[in-house]
Amino acid sequence: MTVALRPRAAAPWALPGAVVLVVAGTVLSMKVGARPLSWAELSDGLLHFSGAPSDFVVRHVRLPRTLCGLLAGACLGLAGTVAQGITRNPLAGPDTLGVNAGAAAAMIAVMTAGIGSLAGHVWFGFLGGAVAALTVYAIGGSGRDGATPVKLALAGAAVSALLTAVTSAFVLLDRDLFARYRYWIIGSLARAELPTVGQALPFAVAGIVLAVLLVRRLDAVALGEDASRSLGARPGPTRAAGLVAVVVLAGTATALAGPVVFVGLVAPHAARALVGTAHRWVLPLSALLAAGLVLIADVAGRVVIAPEEIHIGVTAALLGGPVFLHLVRTRKVAAL
């Protein structure tokens, strides 16, 4: 399929609007919760920590949660954009390439073996996602045609189905394991900590840099196999590098918030609806929209049934679902 890229921004206000969304989400995330904070309490907690209860809430609860939401959302938006770009599949995402299924299988393996804590488990999930994605690429890249979009999608579906079946078998046989796995698989920012942000930041930066370096090549790949080769962008190496970026970005987001799968799907579609298909516009806008969506979804989860909370994986789907359905009904989603 050959498509024409729209190189200019169709909505000049899109990026500034997305920045406003992220700022609004950040402010709400810091102020709203089981214990609402005044502006004075928020300022004192950030700038003049004295050990007061409100200071503790700001520094040790709201700030880590907000930073995790921002970083996880940006990584999800970029991962979804790159995944859709390298596969030329509008429904692609980290789950399509087996990343989430691999992460879940690795998590179950270490939980079953009783290794480490939840904070350590997510890094095994990162490794599992990488192994699964490499397996998908190895299978999809076999044969004379190499790693074509169709073969990658089929390989990803097969590997994901196999890993999901294995994971489900282990979970259903152990009630305690099911309880721990259920909390993780839905996605949540409730256990966010500043050390986790520090550990994840280098991975996020590496993934973001790699995604930015692929901007021109992703545009070329979108034009089709023959056209991309004529432009000097080899599809095979581009897809391999893109797969690495997806694994790093999705693994980082998983380490921070669990496998929140819907955000990485809807953010790139919303970005393309606003600014066209050129990746130099779509990548930053997807990152901003996804970060804003994650923060807004997290805040909504805190207040809907307060003082109880709804996990972010649920609220993100409830908020993003209508947007995605609107895009499907009003636009040609297949046009990447």
Automatic annotation (TrEMBL):
Keywords linked to the UniProt accession: Cell membrane, Membrane, Transmembrane, Transmembrane helix, Transport
Membrane topology reported for the UniProt record: Multi-pass membrane protein
The keyword Lyase belongs to this UniProt entry's keyword annotation: no
GO cellular component: plasma membrane
Record field: transmembrane: 12-30, 67-86, 98-115, 122-140, 152-173, 194-215, 240-269, 281-304, 310-328
Keyword Cell membrane assigned: yes
Location in or out of the cell: Cell membrane
Family recorded in the similarity comment: Belongs to the binding-protein-dependent transport system permease family. FecCD subfamily.
Protein name: Iron complex transport system permease protein
Lineage summary: Bacteria, Bacillati, Actinomycetota, Actinomycetes, Pseudonocardiales
